[in-house]
Amino acid sequence: MVDDLIRRGQDCLTPALAFHTDIIVKKAEGLYVESVDGKRYMDFSSGLATVNIGHCQPDVLKAAKSQMDELVHSGCIFRYASEVELAENLARITPGGIEMFFFSNSGAEAVEGAVKLARYATGRQGVIGFLGCFHGRTMGALSLTSSAARYRKGFHPLVPSVYHSPYPYCYRCHMGMDRTSCSVECFEYLEKILKYQITPEEVACVVIEPVLGEGGYVVPPMGFMKKLRELCSRHGILLITDEVQSGFGRTGRWFATEHFDISPDIIVMGKAIASGFPLSAFGASKELMSKWPKGAHGTTFGGNPVSCAAANATIRTIERDGLLSNAAKMGEYCVKRVLEIKGRTKGIGDVRGLGLMIGVELIKDDNTPDKDRLDSIMKKCLERGLVIIECGVDKNIARLMPPLTVTKEEIDRALAIFEEALS
Ligand SMILES: Cc1ncc(COP(=O)(O)O)c(C=O)c1O
User: Which domains does the chain have, with CATH numbers?
Assistant: First the structure.
């Protein structure tokens, strides 16, 4: 059955889709996924940072099923409550000043919508992104994505007037500095872009992941984010934070931007917003959102009633069960435990993260990235019932991102498997 399904898939699904495992799922519930051959796995990938409150969360399913009995699709023809309720909920939980929303289907689509809004509202064309960030695969989003050249290979020329500045990746500084010698040269590079390549008056927006996801689970220094906010405000450039991966409680706050005590002009979210139902959004102030007229942007499926109902239930569950504080607590506990493992094992270069968005960087004796070691660790973990996936341009960083519901006992069990696989 397993081999047969994989073979059939190979015959009819595009080879461009890269599956992380060959697990064929019989049932998924909370942290656990059971395969058709009866094996049970702990999903420390949360379905790629998407089922933040666990697989098939019962309240989410109930809300979705009840919405399905009333209305499945509107296509902007009919009005319905779940979308308006969701926008109201999001206005409450997003950082200050974010008041209005546009709903789309995927992260990439929402990133593109946010950039379109920025261009329209400012009348400027320039877009600045950061080396290492991932924003999606559609042509506009891909033009910003630079977490690996392989994602862009074969698709040039991309959208023009997009510039990239180095992300503050302190463990492997793009500018060749270390923490003792650093005087935020990466920020100076951004200022040089504005001096040598495009004037600030021509830049519509700066787009950044407040915690690097696909590019390596990197947390930028507080000072960098504050300087970035200040630079954008000074030049009338809109700051867009892409919270597609870092949002919805993943870092122990609703949105990672909150950790830096700043507010973006536009916030982008997706993935965990609806616990696996397809939905994404970007939000801005009423003033900014009102700068584009009716029809400037549109969608057929965006804001699907069922997805919106699932998103409302997701927000209710996170609030009711105190999952933000559990994510913060369990994140600290997990980092502490991985640091202990680092102390007694060779090959872990860096452990970092916010909340339950934790990166463990595997290195060789000479500090270079060790992809092969991580490959073998992930394989062994899988054999022992633990799903972990990688990230980073060199694919040598393990991402630990269990659901926000994870317990100490589950972290202990997962890390025991991880440590055994390491050694
Ligand atoms: C930060 C970030 N932005 C955008 C995207 C694109 O999202 P989607 O795959 O839903 O288009 C991703 C996906 O991993 C992401 O992590």
Answer: 31-53+322-422 (3.90.1150.10), 59-320 (3.40.640.10)
